[in-house]
Amino acid sequence: MMKEKKGERFKILVGYDGTRTAKEALNVALFHARHFDAEVHVAWSLAGGQDTSMEEIDTAQDGLQHAESLFGEAQIPCQTHLLIRGLTPGEDLVRFAEEHQVREVIIGVRRRSQVGKLLFGSTARYVILNAPCPVVSVK
Amino acid sequence: MMKEKKGERFKILVGYDGTRTAKEALNVALFHARHFDAEVHVAWSLAGGQDTSMEEIDTAQDGLQHAESLFGEAQIPCQTHLLIRGLTPGEDLVRFAEEHQVREVIIGVRRRSQVGKLLFGSTARYVILNAPCPVVSVK
Are B128 and A120 a contacting pair at CB < 8 A? Predict the structure, then answer.
């Protein structure tokens, strides 16, 4: 149950990867943060090691800077996090939510058609099933 | 993008079926409605026809009455809806959201283990992929 705890700000975690749906997720986070008087954490997950190029890291840093400006302009407390810990994006988001007492996770979900069937991305499925709090899916 | 439209109250739709996770979804709706100054629509979907017994209809009506009291006590505008239109619960929720300009759908999701694998319920998957607005999944 979502109770308001005294002295502890409601924390929203947004998974961000620069895609259109992830930008939409930032907009929803903006709306929620304004109404919940929340602080927003924006996380970009990269695998790290040989799987990650310097270019990917640059793109992630630019994306996180964009997110930071967005919330800064709206005067909403925001922290950004580049997560490079050898985990999948889903694992990174769930782990972060657990470690930081996040009260809501917001993610972009893309519908993918395969043989005429709608499928979830594996990240969305993993986060929705495993996050320790409600998960908002944005398209 | 979630914009606040003048003169139109933010509408939250909760899919309710009396289960534990659906009750949790009501709690999240309560919290969101309070902060968004929203009205809440609680919908219970039944297939109808030969697939639906009078007992099921009674259970649904009792459940909806419980939900109505919950929001009434919190002084949050609430309407309940028993949907019997020959649709699946997922189709009922998406159709309702489309027809009533719902801005957020809240559903309970249950993790189901099958051969050691986590699976989504088909209702949750359908609603998340097809709803015209963000979907909040609650466990």
Answer: yes
